[in-house]
Amino acid sequence: MLDLQKLRMFVAAAQSRNFTRAAEQLDLTQPTVSQQIQTLERELGVSLFERLSRGIELTAAGRALLPHAEQMIALERIAEQAVRAAAGQSERTLLLGVGNTLATYALPDLLQRFNWEHPAFVVHIGTGNTEQLLAQVISGEFELALVGSPIVHTQLIIMPFLTTELVVIVSPDDPWARLKQINIEALHGRRMLLREEGSALQASVSELLNAQQIRPKQPIVLGNLEAIKRSVEVGLGIALVPAMAVRREVAAGRLRQIHLANVPTRRVYNVVHHRDRHITNAAQLFLDLLRKPLGPDTNE
């Protein structure tokens, strides 16, 4: 019998293409995820992943298992919702997926406000990049997801709720540290720290750079924004990040923030939900909260 816990680890690893990121998403250690996936492979008698120097890739057996594993996990959620509905709890429970950047820099304030306004409601949260979360909303694992842009999907309703500026960050010792703004062409040839494929931030940055034919020098790809900020602090390169993500570091003098002068740099964050599924009371109240002004970094 297939173990759902092992299947969750397998799906997380398949979606992130990395055991460490899968472990972070599931709040587990990397050795635990690796060992459990190896156990699953022994139980099935097949290899599910190719272990490569640059990461992991699904084998043919892994690709065959993935859609069934995702369906089994979604069915577990649906069964759980059915039980809650029978007990009168489903309408007061929100299943919320949150992008990695928003989970760190916007979610705590949102949860505080939601809990203050609706203390009887429960929120279950999962995190991931935009590509993962959209798939989980479509499958029914999450009812709402807070994600970056760009997004286009016919099965989803997309509502903007937060806007921030993309800024260049550099270390205090960088030659650009005293600049207030630069033209985007100046980024050509600089080493840049970037998010991984599947991240909405990576998609926005790539779209901005490609439109101006900017080619970073020896880019470094990292799986989360905190790692990017720390790498910039120690002088490994520069990065384009949301201004809301670096307020504290800029205020403390650990990073310098530079505005781009000649291109649009406003970045929009969205809440999405399935077009054809019932909206619970909990989800509706959370949507109502997101329609209110969220703070000084927005232009609602």
UniProtKB/TrEMBL annotation:
<keyword id="KW-0805">Transcription regulation</keyword>
<dbReference type="InterPro" id="IPR036390">
    <property type="entry name" value="WH_DNA-bd_sf"/>
</dbReference>
<keyword id="KW-0804">Transcription</keyword>
<protein>
    <submittedName>
        <fullName>Transcriptional regulator, LysR family</fullName>
    </submittedName>
</protein>
<dbReference type="GO" id="GO:0003700">
    <property type="term" value="F:DNA-binding transcription factor activity"/>
</dbReference>
<dbReference type="InterPro" id="IPR036388">
    <property type="entry name" value="WH-like_DNA-bd_sf"/>
</dbReference>
<dbReference type="GO" id="GO:0000976">
    <property type="term" value="F:transcription cis-regulatory region binding"/>
</dbReference>
<dbReference type="InterPro" id="IPR005119">
    <property type="entry name" value="LysR_subst-bd"/>
</dbReference>
<keyword id="KW-0238">DNA-binding</keyword>
<feature type="domain" description="HTH lysR-type">
    <location>
        <begin position="2"/>
        <end position="59"/>
    </location>
</feature>
<dbReference type="Pfam" id="PF00126">
    <property type="entry name" value="HTH_1"/>
</dbReference>
<comment type="similarity">
    <text>Belongs to the LysR transcriptional regulatory family.</text>
</comment>
<dbReference type="Pfam" id="PF03466">
    <property type="entry name" value="LysR_substrate"/>
</dbReference>
<dbReference type="InterPro" id="IPR000847">
    <property type="entry name" value="LysR_HTH_N"/>
</dbReference>
